[in-house]
Amino acid sequence: MNKDFHCYATYCAAILAGFSHEESAAIGYSSQMVDLCTRTMLTKLHGPLSAATTQLQLELMDARTDIIGLQDITRIWASFHFLPGDLYADPGKKCSKKYLNKYRLICNPNSDLLEKTVRLAKDKSLQAAGLAMHVLADTWAHRYFAGTPSLVINNTNYHFYEFIQGENGETTRKVNFRHSPSAPDEPEISAYTNTVSYNKEKSIMNLGHGRAGHLPDYCFAKYKYLPAWAEYEEIVKDNPKDYFNAFCQMIYALKFLHGDISSFEHSHYDTEAVKPYEDDIRRILNTTQLDSTADWRELGKRLSGYELNEIDVAKLEKEYTDAEEDKKDDTFLGRFFIAAMNQKSMVTNQIYKSGNKLAGYSIDFKTKGFKGIRDFRKLLDKKGGGKNE
Questions:
Q1: For residue 207, which of 77, 325, 302, 90 has the smallest C-alpha distance?
Q2: Burial code of 40-56, b = ≥16 C-beta within 10 A, e = fewer?
Q3: Per residue in 356-382, pLDDT tens?
Q4: What pTM did the predictor assign?
Q5: pLDDT (0 to 100) of residue 94
């Protein structure tokens, strides 16, 4: 997903869940921050490098692809963008453990890890709530792809078609993938930029949905393709439908975090709160445009009576750098960093406990004490952790 949904749609969901304008803005900005918090940014701020929630293209190009480097990549992308759908999944066929572990990192919504993600944010900061909403939303947008480099899991081939709505109903059109990062996507002719095909299992080109370009991130996109992991059976991905489910599920999750409902369970959606605005929301989701920010902002203003401005990253960075050392964790970014390390620690621990080493090793604070990365001591002080990578 892009900032239009992660920031502005999340803001709308928070308003419908009962948060104030200021609280909803913090939640929306925190959801967007997941796509902005890189090690490059953290280095500039002298922040905890383990709080990185994404990687710049240049960072990925320079990333190590040995086991240590791949584990680092997987911790970031599986924790925040491609939450595994079933860490104990059985593909129903004989395969090596190496392949099985990658299969079990395939992203899907309504998982046990999603429940843990939302519950982890309970009684924490607004930044933790926003981060959890980013993870939740991406389980819908990024389903069928995995947050670890893998040709077997993430590759696509020539059989990739987009569904097009026309006067005579729905038809399909072959997607024209190209490899020019400077060329804008052209949905009117189904031309999209993707990563270069590289026939190596661990190539960074085969991370996440890179081979499918930005199609998974566009709310209007409906497409079908033949993933290798599915024995080349055709899969249809309906983003307008999935994004609507994501929006309704965010409202339900945020009502739990707001304290209006007592528990959070997957596969629940608050369609009642959406009902008065359903036509508008479905119109936004079905409109073919690369950026629907203006539409979501207009809806948000109708819901709250306030205009949500663009996130001011420079202002947030200044607040963090200007704060005294013992006050940095109480700034917007400080609270976000704590939430990020908490989420990464939890997901890494769950992957490790499943017997899967693709995200590296994890120890339990409660039984073995602190033996991990120095950054994660913050979780003990903030009582936000319990697990560490």
A1: 77
A2: ebbeebebbebbbbbbe
A3: 999 998 876 555 555 566 777 667 666
A4: 0.94
A5: 73
